[in-house]
Amino acid sequence: MSSSAYEIRVLGTSDVNLMRQLNAVFGRAFNEPGTYGATPPDDSHIAALLSRQHVIVIVAIQNESVIGGLVAYELEKFERQRSEFYIYDLAVEAQHRRRGIATRCIQRLQVIAAERRGWVIFVQADYEDEAAIALYQKLGTREDVLHFDISPTFVLT
Questions:
Q1: Under the phi-then-psi rule, with left for phi > 0, alpha for psi from -120 to 50, and beta for the rest, what region is 108?
Q2: What's the chain's Rg over C-alpha atoms?
Q3: CB atoms within 10 A of CB 15
Q4: Residue 150 domain flag
Q5: d(Cα 78, Cα 143) in Å, to the nearest integer?
Q6: How much is the average pLDDT of 126-152?
Q7: Please, what is the Cα angle at 16 between 11 and 18, to 5 degrees?
Q8: Is the pLDDT of residue 126 over 50?
Q9: If DSSP codes are grouped into helix, strand and coil, which group holds residue 137?
Q10: At the N or C end, where does the chain have fewer CB atoms within 10 A?
Protein backbone atom coordinates (compact mmCIF):
# COMPACT_ATOMS: atom_id res chain seq x y z
CA MET A 1 0.00 0.00 0.00
CA SER A 2 1.49 3.36 -0.96
CA SER A 3 1.72 6.18 1.57
CA SER A 4 -1.37 7.84 0.09
CA ALA A 5 -3.45 4.64 -0.16
CA TYR A 6 -5.86 3.60 2.53
CA GLU A 7 -8.14 0.62 3.11
CA ILE A 8 -11.76 0.65 4.25
CA ARG A 9 -12.53 -1.96 6.89
CA VAL A 10 -15.56 -3.00 8.95
CA LEU A 11 -14.51 -3.60 12.55
CA GLY A 12 -15.23 -6.78 14.47
CA THR A 13 -14.86 -8.02 18.03
CA SER A 14 -11.07 -8.30 17.90
CA ASP A 15 -10.58 -4.70 16.70
CA VAL A 16 -10.64 -2.95 20.08
CA ASN A 17 -7.41 -1.03 19.39
CA LEU A 18 -8.72 0.26 16.06
CA MET A 19 -11.93 1.42 17.78
CA ARG A 20 -9.86 3.26 20.37
CA GLN A 21 -7.95 4.94 17.52
CA LEU A 22 -11.23 5.94 15.87
CA ASN A 23 -12.46 7.46 19.14
CA ALA A 24 -9.27 9.52 19.26
CA VAL A 25 -9.97 10.70 15.68
CA PHE A 26 -13.50 11.70 16.76
CA GLY A 27 -12.13 13.57 19.77
CA ARG A 28 -9.75 15.61 17.62
CA ALA A 29 -12.19 16.19 14.76
CA PHE A 30 -15.04 17.31 17.03
CA ASN A 31 -12.71 19.16 19.42
CA GLU A 32 -14.04 16.97 22.23
CA PRO A 33 -11.06 14.94 23.44
CA GLY A 34 -12.61 14.57 26.90
CA THR A 35 -15.82 13.10 25.56
CA TYR A 36 -13.99 10.55 23.45
CA GLY A 37 -11.01 9.79 25.66
CA ALA A 38 -11.21 10.99 29.28
CA THR A 39 -12.91 7.89 30.70
CA PRO A 40 -12.61 5.17 28.06
CA PRO A 41 -14.54 1.94 28.56
CA ASP A 42 -12.61 -1.26 29.15
CA ASP A 43 -11.70 -3.63 26.33
CA SER A 44 -14.53 -6.06 27.10
CA HIS A 45 -17.13 -3.30 26.73
CA ILE A 46 -15.76 -2.22 23.36
CA ALA A 47 -15.48 -5.83 22.16
CA ALA A 48 -19.08 -6.49 23.22
CA LEU A 49 -20.31 -3.46 21.26
CA LEU A 50 -18.29 -4.47 18.22
CA SER A 51 -19.88 -7.95 18.36
CA ARG A 52 -23.43 -6.61 18.10
CA GLN A 53 -24.91 -6.82 14.62
CA HIS A 54 -26.77 -3.51 14.93
CA VAL A 55 -23.51 -1.62 15.66
CA ILE A 56 -21.52 -0.91 12.51
CA VAL A 57 -18.05 0.62 12.69
CA ILE A 58 -16.21 1.35 9.46
CA VAL A 59 -12.69 2.75 9.43
CA ALA A 60 -10.15 3.99 6.92
CA ILE A 61 -6.68 2.68 7.71
CA GLN A 62 -3.40 3.96 6.34
CA ASN A 63 -0.04 2.56 7.44
CA GLU A 64 -1.75 0.62 10.26
CA SER A 65 -3.35 3.79 11.69
CA VAL A 66 -7.00 4.83 11.64
CA ILE A 67 -7.35 8.08 9.70
CA GLY A 68 -11.13 8.27 9.67
CA GLY A 69 -14.33 6.34 10.00
CA LEU A 70 -17.90 6.18 11.13
CA VAL A 71 -20.13 4.57 13.72
CA ALA A 72 -23.65 3.69 12.61
CA TYR A 73 -26.57 1.89 14.18
CA GLU A 74 -29.14 -0.32 12.51
CA LEU A 75 -32.66 0.46 13.71
CA GLU A 76 -35.07 -2.35 12.94
CA LYS A 77 -38.60 -1.16 12.17
CA PHE A 78 -42.02 -2.45 13.23
CA GLU A 79 -44.12 -1.03 10.39
CA ARG A 80 -42.30 -3.06 7.72
CA GLN A 81 -39.64 -5.72 7.59
CA ARG A 82 -36.82 -3.28 7.01
CA SER A 83 -34.25 -1.21 8.82
CA GLU A 84 -33.00 2.34 8.92
CA PHE A 85 -29.35 3.10 9.52
CA TYR A 86 -28.23 6.11 11.54
CA ILE A 87 -24.71 7.49 11.16
CA TYR A 88 -23.96 8.69 14.67
CA ASP A 89 -20.35 9.79 14.28
CA LEU A 90 -18.29 10.37 11.13
CA ALA A 91 -14.88 12.03 10.97
CA VAL A 92 -11.61 12.09 9.07
CA GLU A 93 -8.29 13.42 10.35
CA ALA A 94 -7.81 17.01 9.13
CA GLN A 95 -4.72 16.23 7.02
CA HIS A 96 -6.58 13.43 5.18
CA ARG A 97 -9.78 15.27 4.28
CA ARG A 98 -10.95 15.88 0.71
CA ARG A 99 -9.61 12.49 -0.46
CA GLY A 100 -12.93 10.63 -0.59
CA ILE A 101 -12.45 8.81 2.71
CA ALA A 102 -15.79 9.81 4.25
CA THR A 103 -17.55 9.04 0.97
CA ARG A 104 -15.98 5.57 0.80
CA CYS A 105 -16.97 4.84 4.41
CA ILE A 106 -20.56 5.84 3.66
CA GLN A 107 -20.51 3.78 0.46
CA ARG A 108 -19.42 0.73 2.47
CA LEU A 109 -22.32 1.38 4.85
CA GLN A 110 -24.65 1.59 1.84
CA VAL A 111 -23.60 -1.94 0.84
CA ILE A 112 -24.19 -3.25 4.37
CA ALA A 113 -27.58 -1.50 4.53
CA ALA A 114 -28.64 -2.98 1.18
CA GLU A 115 -27.57 -6.47 2.30
CA ARG A 116 -29.73 -6.07 5.43
CA ARG A 117 -32.82 -4.75 3.63
CA GLY A 118 -32.13 -1.21 4.73
CA TRP A 119 -34.60 1.40 3.64
CA VAL A 120 -32.59 4.55 4.34
CA ILE A 121 -29.40 5.83 5.93
CA PHE A 122 -29.74 9.09 7.79
CA VAL A 123 -27.28 11.48 9.40
CA GLN A 124 -27.39 14.83 11.13
CA ALA A 125 -25.17 17.84 10.46
CA ASP A 126 -24.67 21.12 12.24
CA TYR A 127 -25.70 24.16 10.21
CA GLU A 128 -22.19 25.62 10.33
CA ASP A 129 -20.49 22.40 9.13
CA GLU A 130 -20.43 23.28 5.44
CA ALA A 131 -18.13 20.41 4.44
CA ALA A 132 -20.39 17.80 6.03
CA ILE A 133 -23.50 19.35 4.49
CA ALA A 134 -21.89 19.36 1.04
CA LEU A 135 -20.90 15.70 1.41
CA TYR A 136 -24.34 14.60 2.56
CA GLN A 137 -26.12 16.60 -0.14
CA LYS A 138 -23.88 14.93 -2.74
CA LEU A 139 -24.94 11.50 -1.48
CA GLY A 140 -28.56 12.05 -0.48
CA THR A 141 -31.61 14.22 -0.07
CA ARG A 142 -31.72 16.97 2.53
CA GLU A 143 -34.57 17.07 5.01
CA ASP A 144 -34.88 19.97 7.38
CA VAL A 145 -36.07 18.65 10.72
CA LEU A 146 -35.83 19.68 14.32
CA HIS A 147 -33.68 17.67 16.69
CA PHE A 148 -34.40 17.58 20.44
CA ASP A 149 -32.23 16.23 23.23
CA ILE A 150 -34.38 14.82 26.04
CA SER A 151 -32.60 14.02 29.28
CA PRO A 152 -33.34 10.65 30.81
CA THR A 153 -35.25 11.25 34.02
CA PHE A 154 -36.65 8.62 36.29
CA VAL A 155 -40.15 9.54 37.34
CA LEU A 156 -42.01 7.13 39.53
CA THR A 157 -45.75 7.54 39.66
A1: alpha
A2: 16
A3: 19
A4: no
A5: 22
A6: 88
A7: 65
A8: yes
A9: helix
A10: C
Report the C-alpha gap between 124 and 50 in whole angstroms.
22
Confirm if 57 and 10 have CB atoms less than 8 A apart.
yes
Cβ neighbours of residue 60 under 8 Å, at least 6 residues apart?
Answer: 6, 7, 8, 9, 66, 67, 68, 69, 92, 96, 101, 104, 105
In a domain, 146, yes or no: no
pLDDT in tens, 81-115: 999 999 999 999 999 999 999 999 999 999 999 99
Whether residue 111 is contained in a domain is answered as yes
Q: How far apart are CA 89 and CA 139, in angstroms?
A: 17
Q: Is 69 within 8 Å of 25 (Cβ atoms)?
A: yes
Number of separate domains in the chain? 1
Which pLDDT band holds residue 1 (cuts at 50, 70, 90)? very low
Domain-located, residue 157? no
- Structural domain that includes position 124: 7-139
Summarize pLDDT for 107-124 with one digit per residue, the tens: 999 999 999 999 999 999
Q: Is 143 helix (H, G, I), strand (E, B) or coil?
A: coil
Using 50, 70 and 90 to split pLDDT, how confident is the model at 145?
Answer: confident
